[in-house]
Amino acid sequence: MPRIETQPGEDKLTLAQWMTVLAMALGFAVTGADPTIFSSNLVPVREGLHMSTAAAGFAASLATLTLAAAILGAGTLGDVYGKRRMYLLGLAGAIVFGLLAAASPNAVMLMVARALTGVFFAFLLGLSLAIINAVFLPEQRPKAISLFLGAAFLVGAPLPLIGNVLVESLGWRWALVVAPP
């Protein structure tokens, strides 16, 4: 991934660098907010799909489990095929499988879609800092990472509240629509 060139000693971030930080922060925020949104709305999901409590609990942890299992592989694929390309694949996959989870007619499809959502979340989480590292010069990285984390937590903090309001108003499927990027 090419670096965005700046003059030596220049500490100002370009518009492209700001956009990179924002894009990476959005993906990072979604991967962090998703388990909270889903877990806090587990009862309506369980009732909507007639799941047992154990199955609902398992469904709640699936995206996180598969994310953890896939994150090292996502990083390796980013190194081999390109960080940007793999990040965009992760974004597309998270959206598609998040929407499939929301449209699930039964518990099995929900679990499969949640598991695959987690695999694609691994690309978003695993490659976001790698992309920032590739785009910014060493002296710019502390500022870039600070902005990245600040923006991610600022964006991610209200997502569980938004998810809960949507679930109360429109139904449990919206718990799965809020988080996909």
From TrEMBL:
Pfam families cross-referenced by the UniProt entry: MFS_1 (PF07690)
GO molecular function terms noted in the UniProt entry: transmembrane transporter activity
Keyword Cytoplasm attributed: no
- Any idea where this protein resides? Cell membrane
Keywords (alphabetical) are:
Membrane, Transmembrane, Transmembrane helix
Where this protein primarily resides, as one coarse class? membrane
Q: One GO term of the cellular component aspect?
A: plasma membrane
Does the entry feature the keyword Hydrolase, yes or no? Answer: no
Query: Transmembrane stretches, by residue range?
Result: 12-33, 53-74, 86-103, 115-137, 144-167
Pinpoint the Major facilitator superfamily (MFS) profile domain residues: 20-181
Q: How does it sit in the membrane?
A: Multi-pass membrane protein
PANTHER family found in the cross-reference section: EXPORT PROTEIN (PTHR42718:SF42), MAJOR FACILITATOR SUPERFAMILY MULTIDRUG TRANSPORTER MFSC (PTHR42718)
- Recorded protein name is Sugar (And other) transporter family protein
Which species does this protein come from? Mycobacterium kansasii
